[in-house]
Amino acid sequence: MRRRSLLIAVPAGLVTLAACGDDSGSGNAGDTASPTAPTTSAPPPKIVDGPLPAITAGTKFGEKPTVAKGSGEPSKQLAVKTVIAGGGRTVAEGDFISANYLGQIWSSAKVFDNSYDRKTPLVIQLSQGGIIDGWRYALTGKKTGSRVLFSVPPAWGYGEQGNEQAGIKGTDTLVFVVDIQDTFNAKSSAKGEEVPQDDAELPTVGTNTDGKAPSIKVPDAQAPKKLVANYVIEGDGAEVGAEDSVLVQYKGVVWDGGKEFDSTYGRKQLTSFSLQQVVKGWSQGLTGKKVGSRVLIVIPPDLGYGDNPPQGSGIEKDSTLVFSVDILAKM
């Protein structure tokens, strides 16, 4: 199993998608325990230019960098330098970002975590309590395609308690190199090629990619008895594995009547979860699908909630569920 980043908190789970009897929330199943970001925040730091140690090897975007030991005393504020300026979309606070990164301790140059060796970018929300504040302040306003070098004093890192798991003391200033690959927000949609929807017995899903909820038109037909998981838009990203976590936009309706019961579009908030902690129809339907895709999933009762739907969800017993799911990123 790949190890979770030391930077992140366990994300909140979904009520309507959680597997029956499990409302423990999402996360990467099988990963080692991860400390949360500090629950209290210091006032916003001043952003200064330095001092910052040099990147001595791996200087290209996407390459694992080697960073020199810090020289002298680090800044008491947040030192930030854009080493490579990207030309993509601007990152806003509250966005999810996909990024590769390396973190080390200023005084010793000891690397305590990096995603390059895991060969899987970190996907994380730049939100208070979800990640250390140094990341929020250093990366907000930067553009995708950028490499950012910054140092984080304890006040905007792990505070006086440090992080014992990572070997970080409460007095340690941290140094990070972050390659920002992509950014996602409530207006993000699938990206790819439209796939014909030519089965009149199945629902038709809208193909708009403007961040608005797609339409779902349920036919006047008998609901299928088996799981349906078809591309509406086929992306070109990596395939999702059965043990992966994903970042998605989705909309769900009931087959009988087509009434909507859940939607990230309505909440204006993306969501993430592990495929091991949702109903079987979701885990089976998304496994093997490509990142960037929009997928129609029709879930029969035995792979959904059967005779035990979540209270207050608006889902009746033995309902067939229909979802449009945009797979934005694999986590």
From TrEMBL:
Gene3D superfamilies referenced in this protein's UniProt entry, alphabetically: 3.10.50.40
One Pfam family in the UniProt entry: FKBP_C
EC category name: isomerase
EC identifiers of the protein: 5.2.1.8
Keyword Phosphoprotein: no
Catalytic activity annotation: [protein]-peptidylproline (omega=180) = [protein]-peptidylproline (omega=0)
Entry GO MF terms: peptidyl-prolyl cis-trans isomerase activity
PPIase FKBP-type domain sequence ranges: 94-184, 243-331
Region (Disordered): 24-47, 188-217
Signal sequence extent: 1-21
Superkingdom of origin organism: Bacteria
Transmembrane segments: none
Keywords: Isomerase, Rotamase, Signal
Alphabetical list of PANTHER family matching this protein: PEPTIDYLPROLYL ISOMERASE (PTHR45779:SF7)
Name of the protein described by the UniProt record: peptidylprolyl isomerase
Native organism: Streptomyces viridiviolaceus
Native organism taxonomy: Bacteria, Bacillati, Actinomycetota, Actinomycetes, Kitasatosporales
